[in-house]
Structures are given as C-alpha cells and as structure tokens.
Amino acid sequence: MFKVNDNYLKLPGSYLFSTIGRKVREYKEANPDKDVISLGIGDVTQPLAPAIIDSLHKAVDEMAVKETFRGYAPDLGYEFLRNAIVKNDFEARGAKVTADEIFVSDGAKSDSGNIQEIFSADNKIAVCDPVYPVYVDTNAMAGRTGVYNKDTELWSDVIYMPCKAENGFAPEFPSEVPDIIYLCFPNNPTGATITKDALQKWVDYANEHKAVIIYDAAYEAYISEDNVAHTIYECEGARTCAIELRSFSKNAGFTGTRLGYTVVPKDLKDADGTALNALWARRHGTKFNGAPYIIQRAGEAVYSEEGKRQTREQIAYYMNNAKIIKEGLASAGYSVSGGVNAPYIWLATPNGMTSWEFFDHLLENANVVGTPGSGFGPSGEGYFRLTAFGTYENTVEALERIKRL
Ligand code: PLP
After folding, report:
1. CATH number of the domain that 121 lies in?
2. CA of 138 to the centre of ligand 1 (A)
3. What's the CA-to-centroid distance between 68 and ligand 1, angstroms?
4. What integer pLDDT is reported at residue 223 of this predicted model?
5. Dist CA 30 CA 195 (whole Å)
6. Would you state the pLDDT for residue 404?
7. How far is the CA of 113 from the centre of ligand 1 (A)?
8. pLDDT tens digits for 299-350?
9. Is the CB of 108 under 6 A from ligand 1?
10. pTM assigned to the model
11. What is the tally of structural domains in the chain?
C-alpha cells in the first residue's frame, strides 16, 4: 500500500497568500460595492517592455521556420543568454562569474526550493525571521527541519535569525553554526538591505565555518544605494562559499513569462572536496528540460540598450510608488522601513495590533489589502508589508485612504 511522504504532513496548515485570498474574496462577496485595492502580493502590474515584446515576436517567428526552429534548449541555458548575464550582471560589477557557472531556469522560486536537494539531509539551515517562506517549507519537505511547534511557529532544527527594528532588520551571526545560510537582499518581506561590508562579513563567516550561503538576489535591480552589493560575488571569497539566485520577474516583469538563473561557482566545494557545480548540473539536467528558447531570447533583450532603459523606467515607476507609500505612512505617524532599495515597505502595526488584526482593519476600513508580517515568520508579528507593484493611481488612492483612517 502506498504512503505519502510524511514530511509534507508536518507542514503548517494554510498558506499565507491563500488565506489572504480567501479573506479578500469573502469581504468582496459581502461588500460588492467596495473598490478593494491590493498592495499585497509581490506581483508586477506593468506590461512587458517593448524591447522584450519585439524579441518575443521575433523568436516566435523563428520557431515557424524549419531552419531556425528550436527543440529542447541546452540544460544550462542558451549561450547567448548566459554570455549576456555574465557581461551585464557580473563583469559590469567587477565580479568574476563564468558562463558555465550559470544555470538558466524558469525562475527563482523553483531554484530556491530545489537547491537544498544537493545538500546532506542532516545539514542545518539558518534563515532570517521573517523570511520568504519557500526556503523553510522546501527544507521541511526534505525532512531537514525537525518538529514544528504550532505555538511558537518554529521548527526545532532550524536556526532562526530574527530581523527586527532593534537590529535594523539585519541578521546577526547565530550562536549555533549552520551548514546552510539563506540570505536575501534586498529582502522580501522587510525591504531591508545590508551594506557590502556587512555582506563581506557573512562571506568571511561562511568561509571560516565551511558553511554555504544561498544568496537570493531576486530584487537586485531595486538597489539605489552605492554601498549595497548587487551580487554576492562582489565580496572577496564568495566564490568558495556562495550560490546566488536571480530572477527576471521583478527586474523585467517576467512573473508570468518565467525566467531566472542560479550561479554555482566552480570553486564551491563541500568538506570532502566535492564540487557543487557538477552536482547541480547533474540535478538540473535530470529534472529540468530547459527554459523555452522564446523566453530566453526575451531575457537576452532585457540586456539590450533599449531593454535596459525600458526596464529601468519600470523600476523607477515602482520605486516612485514605494516613495509615495513610505512618505505617506510616515506622515500618518506609522513607523516604516524598506522602500529605498526594494519595492517592499515594512511598517509596524499601530496601537499594538497583531499583523492579522491590522490586515482586517485595513481591509474593512480602507479597502486596502496588504500582507501580515507574521505570515513570514514569528518575528514578523506586529509588522505589515505593502508592495510598490501596484499602479501609481491605486497606490496614491490607497495611501489617501490609509491617511484618513
Ligand atoms: N525570491 C524571493 C525573495 C521572492 O520574493 C520571489 C518572489 O516573490 C522569488 C524568489 C520568486 O521569483 P520567481 O518569480 O523568479 O520564481
């Protein structure tokens, strides 16, 4: 008789965004005349840039012609895209990454969830708290997280690094040394970043303790401050301790188009000297059949002069929303952070409300949807996330409503 993988049965119940979806649906059903504005889910709203659309059309036409038709893509991704990535995302930043260290994928969600597969089942992970939920959940599915405590909402075998106002939403070195350290900057959900010097200290820590850093740089394009690294490979020694995850979702609006990549440097080896690059190549080649040619051509267009200019404009549009949210909330007396190097604004809930109480308060009294901080981990309790990914008009309207509360 078959049995399910009981690691899945240990996962905590409802998923954050489905709970939000249900609550919003119920509210709308009960109040059909209300205009509800969502600044909740981190999804883009601007259409794909013209340079990307042109490239998509061209690639589709190539697929209609026998001579230029393409079947399966190479496992690692097409060279034209990997070369554009190397040149623009790494060489331009003074970081050394080669094309054969880049693994093109369908996005950072799957990569951030899958990458744990190449590590030993007894490796201990450390995560920021609050955190993008995929890191912990996928390690839980792999049986690496121990026992879940419903009251504390913590797993027994996970090292949590609380990120709160007291420490500037930046993780501190844990007292117990982890094997795998997940870092995400600019951060989802807090919108926080750490300086390049602070990131260098994490790289030094990982090298010293023979730990690996899984560095999620999905929001890299939103960095506006000079002292924040765009890639972990700007730090000395990162090639021996860090894997980097990248996404085209937020820098170029590919949330529905799907494209990302992971960097696994050839210098990265485990305690026995096994190279992770070869291991990930094996895993990638076995379980993934390549991102579509058409989409990889669209990704290449992101790096064209026009593509860069157009996507920069979109990011500026969202960051203007971030400024409106941040300044609007601050003027209404809220304590706010983020929104400078990230499209996320993190606010402390007023009057001692819990994150979910504030969610209901905002939905019912301002008809605005955000994301309760506690959904990202216990240290997110008492906080709330708003995203800058809405339209300008909705963002302005939402803030007017919040100010009137
Ligand atoms: N990593 C972080 C931190 C994210 O916030 C997200 C999406 O919200 C992703 C990865 C997923 O990116 P993708 O759309 O490439 O799967």
Report:
1. 3.40.640.10
2. 14
3. 32
4. 98
5. 47
6. 95
7. 10
8. 999 999 999 999 999 999 999 999 999 999 999 999 999 999 999 999 999 9
9. yes
10. 0.97
11. 2
